[in-house]
């Protein structure tokens, strides 16, 4: 089913025959019966901003089935942006402050790269927590990705994230540990990419009233959920929205940071992602890069040989999860409409 974006607000890479299609802006305080309204609050750093936008468009399109989806793009204020990224936001996004007098069926909130050890010291913390509070009252369900998931549980339940000894990086196999509408019909193993330096622990989540839905022996908890006022909050520590080359691009970026002396250690190869051939090529490059630590050596990075080995091994898991989430929105919306109709027949306001 096609995706829709407000007329004049479709990013250029999606113009022409590529989805999403344009529609006139929805009313600010109503929920259309013709489609699901989804707010995508994209807070990712500049290098990943447009890629993340595309990833979610692709995933929602694949997961929507017969459900038409109207997406509107938003981003938090007080995130440092380059001129180019800010111009993209000005052209195609609205600030989250404009959300506060609206209602959406679903909300997706991404993270951004943290700059402070304590998330509460980030300059955007105030607008972010205001967004969480709004979503609890004005959506049927809210998805929180990676850092946004950590910020949400810190804000509402005081659950702190814990630093990891090394980056949790790769594609990991998970299993279902609870029956829930978000994981209904999912085949195991559930493969999901992760890319993070911190985690929230299962024991803290359970003590805070969260239901852990999926976890991995290697990566820990991924998917967990909790009803918060009127909204089901669905949290991911991983990134099901990632496309085939995303982890590769992050790994390559971290290698360049090492060569530029911006990090002390050479990055670990992401687990469960590269095959044996690609891993050997990358290890060979690593040995050379450690002895010839100059950015110019990136000219010899085995880009083409590595990329041709990659597979989108988590696509079916990601599509199933987001399909379940969209069906959850549709079900909750139908129930609300039914309840309103019953009250109207009974003469209640």
How are the SSEs ordered, and which strands pair?
Blueprint lengths: L2 E4 L14 E3 L12 E6 L4 H18 L5 E7 L7 H10 L1 E2 L10 E4 L15 H14 L2 E5 L1 H11 L4 E15 L13 E10 L2 H6 L3 E2 L1 E3 L3 E2 L1 E6 L2 E6 L9 H14 L16 H16 L11 H5 L7 H31 L4
Parallel strand pairs: 1-2, 1-4, 3-4, 3-6, 4-5, 6-7, 7-14
Antiparallel strand pairs: 8-9, 8-11, 10-13, 11-12, 13-14
Description:
With 349 residues, the chain is of the alpha/beta class. The protein folds into 2 domains: 3-243 and 322-345, Class I glutamine amidotransferase (GATase) domain (Rossmann fold); 246-307, no CATH class. Helix content is 36%, strand content 21%. It contains 9 helices and 14 strands. Strands 1, 2, 3, 4, 5, 6, 7, 10, 13 and 14 form a 10-stranded mixed sheet that branches. A 4-stranded antiparallel sheet has the order 9-8-11-12. Helix 3 (125-138) links the parallel strand 6 and strand 7 (141-145). Helix 1 (46-63) packs across helix 9. It is globular, with a radius of gyration of 21 Å. It starts with a strand and ends with a helix.
């Amino acid at each position: 089913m096609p995706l829709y974006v407000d007329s004049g607000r479709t990013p250029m890479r999606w113009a022409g025959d590529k989805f999403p299609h344009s529609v006139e802006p929805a009313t600010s305080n109503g929920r259309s019966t013709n489609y699901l309204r989804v707010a995508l609050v994209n807070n990712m750093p500049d290098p990943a901003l447009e890629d993340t936008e595309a990833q979610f468009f692709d995933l929602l399109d694949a997961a929507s089935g017969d459900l038409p989806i109207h997406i509107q793009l938003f981003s938090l204020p007080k995130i440092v942006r380059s001129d180019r990224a800010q111009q993209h936001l000005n052209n195609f996004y609205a600030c989250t402050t404009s959300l506060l007098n609206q209602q959406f069926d679903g909300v997706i909130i991404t993270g951004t790269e943290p700059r402070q050890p304590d998330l509460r010291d980030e300059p955007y913390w105030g607008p972010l927590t205001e967004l969480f509070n709004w979503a609890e009252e004005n959506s049927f369900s809210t998805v929180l990705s990676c850092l946004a998931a950590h910020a949400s549980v810190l804000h509402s339940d005081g659950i702190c994230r814990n630093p990891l000894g090394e980056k949790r990086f790769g594609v990991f196999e998970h299993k279902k540990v609870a029956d829930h509408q978000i994981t209904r019909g999912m085949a195991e193993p559930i493969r999901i990419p992760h890319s993070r330096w911190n985690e929230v622990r299962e024991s803290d989540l359970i003590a805070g009233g969260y239901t852990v839905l999926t976890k991995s022996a290697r990566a820990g908890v991924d998917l967990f959920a909790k009803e918060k006022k009127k909204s089901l909050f669905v949290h991911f520590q991983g990134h099901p929205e990632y496309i085939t080359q995303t982890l590769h691009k992050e790994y390559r970026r971290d290698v360049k940071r090492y060569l530029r002396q911006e990090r002390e250690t050479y990055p670990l190869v992401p687990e469960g992602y590269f095959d044996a051939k690609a891993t050997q090529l990358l290890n060979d490059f690593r040995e050379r890069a450690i002895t010839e630590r100059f950015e110019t050596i990136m000219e010899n990075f085995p880009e083409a040989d590595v990329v041709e080995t990659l597979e989108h091994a988590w696509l079916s898991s990601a599509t199933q999860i987001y399909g379940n989430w969209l069906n959850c929105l549709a079900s909750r919306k139908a129930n609300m409409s039914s309840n309103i109709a019953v009250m109207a027949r009974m003469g209640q306001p």
